[in-house]
Structures are given as C-alpha cells and as structure tokens.
Amino acid sequence: MTDLIEEAKKARENAVAPFSKFKVGAALVTAEGKVFHGCNVENCTYGLTVCAERVALLSALAAGERKFTAIAVVTQSDQPGTPCGPCRQLMWEYCGDIDIALANLKGDRTDYKLSELFPHPFYFSLED
Ligand code: THU
C-alpha cells in the first residue's frame, strides 16, 4: 500500500485544479496488480469537475479492467482527505468493499474499507 500511495502522489502532480488549487491524486490497483492513475480535472463551469478517484476508476474500466483490490488517495490537506459521496457510490458499484488508503503530503495516513466510509450504498440488480 505504501507503493500505491507513492503512485497516487505522483498522479497528483498532474492535477488540473486552477479553481480550487486543491490537487488530488489517486492510484487504483487491479486484482492482477496493475495500477491506474487519476487526478482531479476541474472545469470553468465548476460542475463538470471530475475527482481523482473517478478518473482512475473510469480509466481502468475503459481499459477493460473489472476487479480491483485497493485505492490510494493523496491530498494536500492537514488531515488525509476522504472521497466525496459520488466517488464512494461509484467505487462501491465497480470495486466492492476495497481497501482505501488516504494520505496527505506530510505523510499522515488513514486506512479504511470502503464499507466503513459508505455503509448503506444504493444498489439494485437487473435480475431482481
Ligand atoms: N476532489 C477529488 O478529486 N476527490 C475527492 O474525493 C474530493 C474532491 C477534487 C474535486 C475538486 O477539483 C477539488 O478536489 C476541490 O473540491
């Protein structure tokens, strides 16, 4: 997981955050150990901004990956930042109860299972 945090830190350097100045990096690892990177990408309408976690996840899904084990997220905040609600929902749907390592630039780190951060997810199956 320490390596994954380093990957997220590197991904953060590509963040496009001219409006908030809050840069976020994410690194998502597949069951086979392949790492997909994401950074937040902001937009002048603000509302079209995409979070680092979603960029990493959508990039992995677009590459055909479907099984994930862990994600690391790095922010510049005083306390490691937690993923926003929409990212938690998407991660739940596509990654299940993965390991989440949150870190800041000072080296503080907090580990969670997604179910701790998102205990009552919305989900339905087309087969129900
Ligand atoms: N952001 C993320 O990239 N991930 C999160 O989980 C929360 C917020 C980004 C969105 C925006 O570019 C900036 O952080 C400030 O909200």
**Oligomeric composition of the shown chains:** single chain
What structural class do helix, strand and pairing data support? Answer: alpha+beta
**Could you tell me the number of beta strands?**
5
Strand order of the largest sheet: 2-1-3-4-5
List SSEs in N-to-C order.
Answer: HEEHEHEEH
Describe the sheet with the most strands: 5 strands, mixed
Q: What is the helix tally?
A: 4
Low-confidence stretches: none
CATH hierarchy: architecture: 3-Layer(aba) Sandwich
CATH class assignment: Alpha Beta
CATH superfamily: Cytidine Deaminase, domain 2
Attribute tags:
single chain, 128 residues, alpha+beta, Cytidine Deaminase, domain 2, five-stranded mixed sheet, 4 helices, 5 strands, 23% strand, binds tetrahydrodeoxyuridine
Characterise the protein shown here:
With 128 residues, the chain is an alpha+beta fold. It has a single domain (2-117), classed as Cytidine Deaminase, domain 2 (3-Layer(aba) Sandwich), CATH 3.40.140.10. The protein is 29% helix and 23% strand. It contains 4 helices and 5 strands. It has helices at 2-12, 52-62, 85-95, 114-117, and strands spanning 25-30, 35-39, 68-75, 99-104, 109-113. The chain has a 5-stranded mixed β-sheet. A hairpin with a 4-residue loop joins strand 4 (99-104) and strand 5. The longest helix has 11 residues, at 2-12. The radius of gyration is 14 Å and the shape is globular. The termini are far apart. The mean pLDDT is 96. Tetrahydrodeoxyuridine (THU) binds at residues 17, 20, 22, 24, 40, 42, 49, 51-53, 83-84, 87.
